[in-house]
Each structure stands twice: as structure tokens, then as C-alpha cells.
Here is the input.
Amino acid sequence: MNELVIVSLYPRDMNIYGDRGNVLSLARRAREHGFTPRVVEVNPGDPLPERVDLVIGGGGQDSGQGRVALDLQARADEFRSLADDGVPMLVICGLYQLFGHRFVTYTGEELTGIGVLDVETRGASERMIGNIVLDTEEFGEIIGYENHSGHTRLGPGSRPLGRVIQGAGNNPEDGVEGARTANVIGSYLHGSLLPKNPALSDFLIGEAAKRRYGGFAAAAAESETVRRARESAKRRPR
Ligand code: GLN
Here is the structure.
């Protein structure tokens, strides 16, 4: 009756630095808000479920991205129409890059993305690695961990997720991290991200609930464990 269908996108190939934790954390938070989450894993070749309320995807090495890029392209129209329809999605690192227009690796290989986010990424020689803290208007401080060589630049169709307080973010120059178009959020932040940032989970669940059930009454409590995890992650040096 109060089900929410969470698509876990490419968990076999795109699941690095604990990104699967985002799916577990989101399902748990959805339960705390009174929903019954149903997680559907979608790997290359698997059909999308008939009903999609939320999409979560993780990061991976360039090789993993190569394995999923063609399959994702074949679904580009489906994902574009879900995004246009307001389906909340969170895509991290490797899938953030592929939800943009293209990712050109450091060795010059071009992976075509699906253009749901107005971003483009180019691999560079140096990796950006370390703990990262963002300041955002909508979600307060976001805390995570980044490890990528891709430099991502935003076009006018996406706005940044946040301003970088500590760390690199989309690239070493712009001082911003992530991208947002409609309810689709792309970000480099692993960690995994959602356990330490329940405000993001609540946004994803809230938008999914409003779209499917016409409203959202938040019911999950604040957690002392989360508060302490955030404090301790913030204190860690880069
Ligand atoms: N291959 C990409 C990069 O290094 C993505 C890395 C990741 O998902 N952690 O930029």
C-alpha cells in the first residue's frame, strides 16, 4: 500500500567505496518514514521495473563504466522521461559522469552519457582524493569522501549540489561539487553518502512520496549516531 520502489542501478559494476550503503540506508530511512521499500537491482540487460519511485547508482572504475555505458545508452529515453517526470535519483561518481553528456578518459576513450545532467567530464592525470565537506542551501552541510580523476564542468541546465568547503569537488578550479537537474542529483561523494547525510535521503524519499502518494509527512527521528558520525568524519584530515 505504501510501497516505494527503489531501483539500485548496476550494483554489480558500479559499487565502489561502499556505495551500496546508500541503498541500504535509503531503504532503512524509508521504513522509518513509514514506507515499505522494495529494492530492485538492475544490472546490464535487466528490465526496469514497471513502477520506479527512486533510482540510486554508484561509482566504479573506468572499466566498470565501460561495461555499463552501452546498456545505459539503450535506456537513455526511459531515464530522461523518468527525470522529466520528477523521479528522484542519486548517482555517484562513475554514474554521475555517465548521467552527463560524455566522459572522456585520460587515455582519450570517449564514453557517451545519457545527458540527464548538463555536465561533461574529462579524465586528468591526477586524482582528487580525500574527505570533502560541502555547504548547500537545501541540505545543510554535506559530508563525504571523493576519489576521482574526472574533471566535471556544468552547463546551464544543471546547478551545483553545493559549494566546496574542504576538498576538490567537480574540478580543482570551480569550487563547487555535484550537479542537480529537476530531482536528479549527481555527486562525487562516496562514504557512503546517505548514512551520514539523512537530509539527502529525506529529500529523495519526500519527492518520491509526493509524486506517488501526493504528500509526505516526515516521521524519521534524528539520530545521535548520525550526528557523531558527521562530527567524526568532519574532523578527519583530507
Ligand atoms: N573513473 C572515474 C574517475 O576516476 C570514476 C571514479 C569513481 O567512480 N570512483 O573519474
